[in-house]
Each structure stands twice: as structure tokens, then as C-alpha cells.
Amino acid sequence: MIRRRLVYPSGASRRIMLTVGVCLLAAACRSRSAVSSTVYTPAHATVGEAVRGFLNLRPTATQPIPFPHKIHIEKQAMCTDCHETVERGPIAGIPSVKTCMICHSQIATDRPLIKEVTGYSDKGIEIPWQRVYGFTREAHVRFNHAPHVRASVDCSTCHGDVGQMTVAERKVNHTMGFCVNCHRQKNAPNDCMTCHF
Amino acid sequence: MERRDFIKLTAITGTSAALTACGNPEHQVIRFVPDEDIVPGIAEWKPSVCPVCSAGCGLTVRIMDADFETMRNGQAGVVAIKAAKKLEGQPTHPINQGALCARGQAAIQLTYHPDRVTQPMKRSGTRGAADFKPVSWDEAIAELAGKLDGLSDRKALAYITRPRRSRRLEVATEFLTRFGAPAPIGFELFGNEVLRKANAASFGREQLPTYDLSSAMFVVGFGADFLGTWNSPVAQTIGYGQMRQGRAGMRGKFIQIEPRMSLTGANADEWIYARAGTEGVVALGIAHLLAPNNSGLAGFAPDAVEKVTGVAARKIERLAREIDEMKPALAIVGGPTLAYTNGSFHARAVNTLNAVLAGSGHASGIGFTPGADAVRPLRPSADLKNLSAQVLLLDDANPIYGTPKGWGVRDAIAKVPYIASFSSFIDDTSAHADLILPDHTFLEGWTDSLPESGSMLAVASAAGPVMKPLYQTRSTPDVLIEVAAKLKTPIAMPWKTYDEAIKAGFDKIGPTAWDDVAKQGGHWTAPGAERRSASDGARPPSPQSPVPSLQFVPPQFDGDVAAYPYYFQPYPSQAFNDGSTAHLPWLQEMPDPMTSAMWSSWVEINPQAAEKLGIKKGDVVEITSSQGSLRAPAVLSPGIGPDMVAMPVGQGHETFTRYASKRGANPVTILAPLTDTETGALAWAATRVKIARVGDADGSLIMFAGELREEPHHHHTR
Question: Which chain B positions have a beta carbon within 8 Å of A23's beta carbon?
Fold first, then answer.
């Protein structure tokens, strides 16, 4: 009887646990995007984060300026023109406002959104873009763009057809299954230490 | 607790934890546009020079992107910078050959220290209270130039610095020379003036030697902690490793003779206790037995040596036999052995032993790094005794901490009307400054070193900044050059900037020398030159020539035996050396290799003596000399003579950042102002003390190998 109660909670306990879960989910939806406490811990900083992490729930990024990827790609810009460290390093890089101003100190300077960009640049402040993709620290995953670019994996394989989007949206779910499937198909290394190091 | 309650509690805490995660979204942090082009996640390695001691080891610094919290236009935010993250030894550097000691590793904390002086400051409170208010660089430089202009006698400008041979120091010397002031005082608590002077007499080189440990078969050390803190410890440790394990089928033997077991002594095959102040007599006892013509050493027959030193005659005979069998042999002297009033005698005695070894078919293991004439001489530390100046400049020196009371440095400094310090940290002496002109750290500005020993190649190390300055600091040589230009009658300095001065030095070495700076952090003469420069070393007498006559000079100690029965040996700590790195928390946290103590001061006492005095480990004892007293916890150590107590130097700063201020006790405060009778250098091992137990363990002794640090009360219950 005792063992049974430990394994299967009674009806009352189940209701309580359900309440707990709902509370946590509610909290999860309201709270900030990525992570994290300043103290290093291998665990999640809060229970809320742990629940969100487990259920792979992430808030949608809201960008300060609705950056139109589509327009830029139509004007023959390449992904790597702005995400310029993607071929050289682990991080593709959210471009600095300096990168914007390379063109927009000349082009379309009268448009209201470009004026906003110029405003940031004049103040010496970066546009507070939010990350759309990326792993939480607690996921213990390290990703390096450069070898993927070298292996001619198209950007859209992992990021969707951003060239058709205005602001980037998370169209591909970066679960472990997603990574492993592709690595299997392409005969890329699949041992744990490839990503979890 | 009922299970139901537990679940309820989980619900409450869980929800509140989740709620605290809300608010303060990350996108509200202001990011400033960076000044540099950064590839995030990719490390670069750039050469630099270790600033911690005079050894001048080469560094390679890992640089990566980092977020730095800063203020711009009154607004707080973060900016991405290229930041130094790790220091390693430079693999091709001839001195450290890729290795780096713990103090060098911790040097990265100089840059990121939370108590760094971040901008020029002017005294706003009383002297010594360390109350400062920020000023601009223009104001600060104008003020210093004004004070220098106001000097009626230009000789009344004094400059105290660490005697670390470099072009940096040359800029200061040049400034002072052209201004009409005397040369800088090179202040170093654990200076090596005694050995330099003795080497000038024995080998014609007023310089610290470089030892060829790697090809020695027998090494006998006299007090020199050459694996820990003395001279060029990384280079010597590499050579020592070669001697012990680097040659197939051969293992060199090493014997250390000293009254207190140093880290180096702990590595020896045999540690021999000799009475304090008599170590050199053992050296002459060995020389007496080995020299073919030993009439000059008539007084040093084994029995006579035993009487003076306490080392058994049979042991000396065995040592001499072993040395004779295991060629080549080498003797090393340094540290406390040269810090008695008869320090010069010991240096001469060991030099004589080396000459005898070299003369009796042993290869000379002593050489001298070429290029010693690259810098001009400084005034010795002892000149601080007569310090009287109208304006005092402090450059990386802390003489109030590191001089005995009897030298009167504190009073002398209090009397100086105007003091400016280039220090990056407010230390015991800089707290008395009227103006602080903070220097860049070695990672943020140009840096250079011209090591005196550690390699048989002529080494000139230099490196440019590896990262941008974090704060409103300026390179001290550049400030001096600017002050020179701002004087009423400007001084024309030969260089416009510090890096120009460094380049001028390299251009003198050779046409390609400067190119090596960017590549490898310095220039060293090609290995082909090695043999020739090695012959600059010991010039041994021919086997037939008699050994010069030597007489034992008995040591004098302050305090008579009846009142002060114990010799007192302060020694450079493995973590802090002379105390100049006590503000680095990694080093505070580093357990002492001999005792495992950390974050604390302690007194080493022989267990026999401790039993006699009723002292247990951790008990608070009071040590009293004729100069004063201090309290610290006791550590019982069998590696110290029963007539001696020892204490590491480094703690006990009045002011030295949050990590070192008022932590532990400073043994220098109770040292008698005795000096080596020949050179006038401070004899820091020539004080006698008495000890008394004054209380139970108070928890101030923190041991790595011991009680849990979180539970200091365990000290009391044990």
C-alpha cells in the first residue's frame, strides 16, 4: 500500500501537482528570454527555466526594428555580408550597427526605420537585437558555425528560408534529434563529444 | 513534514522562483558599439612579458571577446572588447621555455582587479588616509610639472622603483638625469646586492649568475630557494628537472644546506641543517677537502667546520667524496644565507667552492647572461635610509611595507612635501601620495624586460599592448616624457614615446631585432652565440694555483642570546614573494607548498621548541625582537632548526586592496636594521627574537590540508 502511494499519487495530490505545473507554465510564458544567473551552476537557475527548458518553450523574439531580411536578400546581399564571422568562427554574429551604416550612411537615409538605425549609430549604441536561435547554457551544447559552412550546409537547413522573412523567425526546432539526423545522413561524427564538450 | 505539505511547499517555492525570473529583460542592457573588430569565439595568442618579478619570463596571452561593463557619456552599459583571458609561458622564450610559475599565472588579475586605480587621483584627505578624488590627466600632469618646476634644488627629486632591468627603467633614469636629479633608488626587500658584488670580485661580473643545472651531476645549495622564488626560478626549475630526470640513466644529486627548509630544500636528496650564519663555512669545508692546494683554507678542516656549523665532520667528508665522484658539480648560494651581516663572506665562500670545483676537473656551471651593460646602475636600496626629498616619485615600489622601522622610511616619506605615485593599486606607501598617476597594466600598454640571468643568450623581451586599456590609465614612461615636455623649460627626451624608447634599444642590438618583437615578444641572440658567451662566466684558477686565503667572518645578530634566544628568518613567500602580489586573490587562495596555509600569516617553529614553550599548531604566538612584536598563529615544522623561527613575508599590509589589507602580520616590521658589513645591503636574516604563546587558535590560520575553512570553530574544539 505504501509503495503504491509513493508511485501513484492519490487523486488529491495529482490535482495539486497539476496546479503546480500550470503555475509554472504560466510563469514560464511571462518571463524573460534566455537565462541566467551570474553564478555558475550546471543546473537551471530557476524552476521556471528548468520547466521551460524541458518542454522546449521559448518566448518569441521581439525585435526593436522589424528588420526585413527579404528586402536585403532581394537586393543581392548575401547572408555572410552581415553575419560576417560565420565562416571564421563559432558564432555567426548579430551584426553591429557599424555594419548597417556601411550601406545606410548612403542608402535610403530618409526612411523612418533607417533613421532609427542612424539614431542608434549616432549615440554609439548597438541596436538591441534579440537572439532568435541559440542554446541555453544549461543545454551543454556547443555549436560552431564555421565547419558547417565549410561543409556547404546551406544556412536555410537550420534557419529556414530567412530570405523570405521580414524579421527572422524560428522555423526550425534545434532539438538533438534534428542535429543527429543530419549528422547521420551526412556521415558527420555523431559521438557525444562532438557537441557536448 | 507530511507529504501533502511538501508538495504544497514545492508549489509555492517553485512558482515564486519562476516569478523572480521575470522582469529586467536582457534586451534592456545597453550595448555600446565596440571600437574593435571582433570575431566572437575565436582566440588569438599574443606575446607579452611577465611583470611579476625580475626574471622576465616570456608570456603568450590568450585574447578573446568579452563583455566589459563600462560607462559612456554617463550611461552604464556593456561593450564587447578583446580581452586577455589566460597567460601561459612563451614556448620559444629562452628563459621560461613555455613554463610559467603560479605568480606569473595570477598576473592576469592585475588587469581585472576590482580595486584598481582607474583614473588619476588627488589626495583629498589627510596623508596616509587614502582619501582621493578623481582629476583629469591634464590637471594631474600640470600639477606634477608645476611641483617639479617649483624645486629650488633639482637634486631634491627622488625616484623609488623596483630594480627590474628594462628600457622602461631607462626612460625614468634618462628623465632624472636630464632633469638634474640623482638616479632612481632600486628598492627590493630581497635584493641581491651581496651576490652581485661578490661576483664582481670573483668573476669580474657584477651580475647574478645563470646556472647550468641541466648538465650538472651534483648540486649543492646554500639557502638559495632557486626552485621557488630566488633569481630566475622558472629557468632554474627547468634546468633542475633536466638534471634529475632529463638524461637517460643519470640522475643528478642535490643537497641543500640551510637552517630552515625552503621549498627547494624539500626537493633535495639530503637537507642539512647548518647553524644560521655559518652556511658558507660548510662550503669552505668541502673546498678544503677538494682543493689540490688548500693552504689558504687551513682553518676549514672538517673538525673545525663541525665546531662552527654543527654539521658533522664525517658528513662533510662524505659530501666532498660524493662531489668528487659525480662531476660536474655546482654550488648555488642565495636568499637568507646572503642576508646575514656576514653575507658577503658566504657569497665569497661559495664562489671559492665553485672555483675549486671548476679547477679540479669539473666543468664550470656558472655563466652570465650577456648584455649586462644595457641599463645604467640604480642607487641601492640602502639609500632609502637617508631619504630626504622635496618631491618623491613612486614607481612600483612599496618601501614603507618592505623596510625595517630602523631605516626610518615612514618618517622620511611623511616629511617629503610632495609625493606622486604611478601605482595601479593603493598600497602602504601609495596611500601617502598626493597624486596617483595610474600606469597601464602590462597587458594594456608596452612592456619590456632585459633579464639579468636565466639564459646564456642575451635576452631582450618586449611586447606591445595585447588589449585596449580598460580605464583612464597611462603608461608611466609616457607620462614622464609628457611631464618633461610640460616643464617651464622643457627637457628634450630622446624619445617621444615609451615604445620609441624600446625600439631604439632593439635597433642597437641588430637590424632584425625589432621584427622579432611582434613575432615572439623579444629578441635573443641565436644559439650559435651560446658557447662563446658561456665563457664569459667563471674563470677558474688553474689547478696548481693556491686558493685565496679566506677567514670566517662571524655573523652578528640583533638581540642578545639570553633575552632573544631564537634566530628569526623572514622569507619570501611562494605566493607573494616580497608582498608585491598579496593583492591577487588567486595567490591568497594558493596553499603554501610547505605548510598548505593560505589567506594567512604563520610562524614556523620546530616541534621541540614548541613543546618546550607549550605551543600547539594554530596557537597564537607573539614574536618580539628589539624592534617590536607581532602576533601570528604557529605552524610546527620539523624542517627548521630548534633555535630558529621563520615567517613568510607578504601579508600584513596596512593598505593593499580588499584582499590583502590588514590580513596577517608583516615580519619586516620587527627586523633590526642590520646590514651586510661589506656591501651595506639589508641583513634581513640577522634578527633574534623571543616567542611566547599568547592564546588558543583563533581561526586565523587557514590550512588547505586541514580543517574545513567554513568551520573555523573546529580549531577551538580540537
Answer: 11, 14-15, 18
0.90 cut: is pTM over it?
no
Residues B682 and B594 reside in one and the same domain? yes
The answer on pLDDT for B362 being more than 50 is yes
Average pLDDT rounded to a whole number, residues B331-343 = 97
Residues of chain A in contact with residue B32, where contact means CB-CB under 8 angstroms, are 124-126
In this predicted structure, what is the pLDDT of residue B510?
Answer: 85
CA distance A124 to B102: 40
Structural contact between residues B418 and B390, judged by C-beta atoms closer than 8 angstroms: yes
Question: Could you say which DSSP state residue B460 is in?
Answer: E
Q: Residue-wise over B238-248: b if at least 16 C-beta within 10 A, else e?
A: bbbebbbebee
Are B624 and B677 within one domain? yes
Residue B382 lies in a domain: yes
Domain boundary among B47, B82, B112: B112
> Within this chain, do residues B226 and B334 fall inside the same structural domain, yes or no?
yes
Inform me whether the pLDDT recorded for B228 exceeds 50.
yes
B217 lies in the same domain as B359: yes
Q: Check CB contact of A24 with chain B, cutoff 8 Å.
A: yes
Q: Which amino acid is at B184?
A: P
Give the per-residue pLDDT at B21: 40
Q: What's the gap in Å between the CA of B704 and the closest CA on chain A?
A: 23
CB pairs under 8 A between A and B: 104
Task: Tell me the C-alpha distance between B633 and B221, whole Å.
Answer: 30
Asked if residue B172 and residue B234 are part of one domain, the reply reads: no
CATH code, B650: 2.40.40.20
| B87 compared with A43, residue with greater pLDDT | B87
Q: Are B7 and A13 within 8 A, CB to CB?
A: yes
Say whether B25 and A45 touch across the interface (CB within 8 A).
no
Measured between CB atoms, does B24 come within 8 Å of chain A?
Answer: yes
State the smallest CA–CA distance between residue B632 and chain A in angstroms: 34
What is the number of domains present in chain B? 4
**Is residue B60 in a domain?**
yes
Residues in chain A: 197
Q: Which of residues B367, B394, B429 is at a domain's end?
A: B367
CA distances for B98 relative to A100, B102, B364, B426, B574, angstroms = 43, 13, 26, 32, 20
Range of the domain at B17: 3-112
Q: What is the CATH number of the domain that holds B104?
A: 2.20.25.90
Residues B642 and B609: their CA atoms lie apart, in Å, by 6
B34 touches chain A (CB under 8 A): yes
10-residue mean pLDDT profile of chain A (197 residues): values are 44 56 48 47 74 80 93 94 92 92 94 96 94 82 93 94 92 91 94 90
DSSP at A91: -
Residue of B15, B22, B40 lying closest to A23 (CB–CB)? B15
Question: Tens digits of per-residue pLDDT, B158-197?
Answer: 999 999 999 999 999 999 999 999 999 999 999 999 999 9
Average pLDDT for B272-283: 96
- Work out the average pLDDT over B332-354: 96
Residue B218 shares a structural domain with residue B284:
yes
* Nearest-by-CA chain B residue for A48: B18
Whether residues B76 and B171 share a domain: the answer is no
